[in-house]
Design brief:
Radius of gyration: 22 Å
Number of strands: 21
CATH topology of the largest domain: Metallo-beta-lactamase, Chain A
Low-confidence stretches: none
CATH architecture of the largest domain: 4-Layer Sandwich
Strand content: 15-25%
Strand order of the largest sheet: 6-5-4-3-2-1-21
Structural class: alpha/beta
Length: 464
């Protein structure tokens, strides 16, 4: 069996791993590379997996860095099935159409602003390509083996992380021998609101694992609500805004759920809260439709609160005009808007009108990849660049890491310790992390593997 790492190898975005046996070519994820366009564009434009010859894609979850180039894959000739959970299919169908729309709008904007002779990039794919992807989704139930052929079986397990996210367990017949490969996708944390804990698995010949926070331990999530309360109320006393860049998928729903709990406890100052993302609004409806996939705490809350994503003072913004009006509105108020790494979408315009205001606060609630506007904010640079303009950063920048949907070092060590109890793994490949996180995780899990873990780089192949 040959594994080629075509994304999220030596970096965090662009998850894409090609599995080849003597009879199958299967792609695990097909994500977009995110960051500076001049660096990511070439990787997003060209596929090295030969799309027309792929037998299938297995999609771990619907985040854009894992699913976002599926329309590009279809555009390049892929016509096979895409296996995922039903919730992932429902979410990805929306996410991919929205991605195509944003690319079209961004291409139009940059073409308008481009200097004479400056190269202008078109969108990677269209909404029609995204609709073609939706026709290829085939649902696999969590916990049940699905036979895909005489030489391959698939089973999904709960991964936590976001709604629908799955750990992939593959059994592949290669040169007369069955081999078990496990792909964690993005593992979630234990004991978090909304979702089930990540499941553990039995011994595997190969494990491909993420390492986003392989060198960090998250703050206790119990502190997150009090931090939200502190930050929002502090900005309110200064009559300032709080801008929260948040992924439309997962992070927005988590924030709204926690704010709803604070309101239920009468513990949050009464400032208006706006969700300025039509996609987040639609995705929240998907979360409502899949409440059976949520944990027991949600089911208990629903006994006295009929909507965990709604409270007095919360408004879901829809139109572009309503979004623009928020930039002219005096504070205090809270805006939760996409995208999570501040690279595109409505939040960029809110930041453009806020970063120079010393009374306002920018609240970062997730990992910010190198090269993104979000990373510039986290680093608290004196100036940031938005739409080509150099703007002084005078606003307060706060970070809350306890909201991360990713497993931290302790969660990852626990998961591999449980795997070791059930037989361990032969070979581990560590992906989806910067070098510091991947290296730290390699040391943590070394005793759980038959041979030292490998940290592959982009384009590297291994025979296992």
């Amino acid at each position: 069996m040959k594994i080629t790492f075509l994304g999220a190898a030596g970096e965090v975005t662009g998850s894409q791993h090609l599995i080849e046996t003597d009879s199958r070519r299967i792609l695990l994820d097909c994500g977009l590379f995110q960051g500076r366009s001049e660096e990511t564009r070439p990787k997003n434009e060209k596929f090295h997996c030969v799309p027309r010859k792929l037998d299938a894609v297995i999609l771990s979850h619907a985040h854009i860095d894992h699913s976002g180039n599926l329309p590009g894959l279809v555009k390049a000739g892929f016509e096979g099935p895409i296996f995922c959970t039903r919730a992932t299919a429902d979410i990805a169908s929306m996410m991919l159409r929205d991605s195509a729309k944003i690319q079209k709008e961004d291409a139009k904007y940059h073409a308008k602003k481009a200097a004479p002779g400056e190269p202008v990039f078109e969108a990677l794919y269209t909404e029609e390509h995204a609709r073609e992807v939706a026709k290829l989704f085939e649902y696999v139930r969590v916990g049940a083996w699905e036979t895909l052929g005489d030489d391959v079986r698939l089973r999904f397990h709960h991964a936590g992380h976001i709604l629908g996210a799955a750990i992939t367990e593959l059994e592949l017949l290669d040169e007369g021998e069955w081999k078990r490969l496990v792909f964690t996708g993005d593992l979630g944390r234990r004991d978090q609101p909304l979702l089930h804990d990540p499941a553990t698995v039995e011994r595997a010949d190969v494990v491909i694992t993420e390492s986003t926070y392989g060198n960090r331990v998250h703050p206790n999530s119990a502190d997150v609500k009090s931090e939200l309360q502190r930050i929002i109320c502090a900005a309110s006393t200064k009559r300032g805004k709080v801008i929260i860049p948040a992924f439309s998928l997962g992070r927005t729903q988590m924030i709204v759920y926690l704010l709803n709990e604070l309101r239920n406890e009468d513990a949050l100052c009464r400032v208006p809260v706006y969700i300025d993302s039509p996609l987040a609004t639609r995705l929240t409806d998907v979360y409502r439709d899949h409440q059976e996939d949520m944990d027991e705490d949600v089911k208990e809350t629903l006994k006295y609160d009929d909507d965990i994503f709604e409270f007095d003072g919360l408004t879901y913004i829809q139109s572009h005009d309503e979004s623009i009006a928020l930039n002219k509105r005096p504070g205090p108020f809270v805006v939760i808007s996409a995208s999570g790494m501040c690279e595109n979408g409505r939040v960029v315009h809110h930041l453009k009108h806020t970063v120079s205001d010393p009374n306002s606060t920018i609240l970062i609630i997730g990992f910010q990849a190198a090269g993104t506007l979000g990373r510039q904010l986290v680093e608290r640079r004196e100036h940031v660049y938005i739409h080509g303009r150099r703007i002084p950063l005078n606003a307060t920048v706060e970070t809350i890491n306890g909201l991360s949907a990713h497993a931290d070092a302790e969660d990852l060590k626990w998961w591999f310790d449980e795997l070791q109890k059930k037989g361990g793994c032969g070979q581990a490949f560590i992906v989806h992390g910067e070098n510091s996180g991947a290296t730290a995780l390699a040391e943590l899990i070394n005793d759980c593997c038959d041979v030292p873990p490998i940290i592959p780089q982009y384009g590297e192949s291994f025979e296992v």
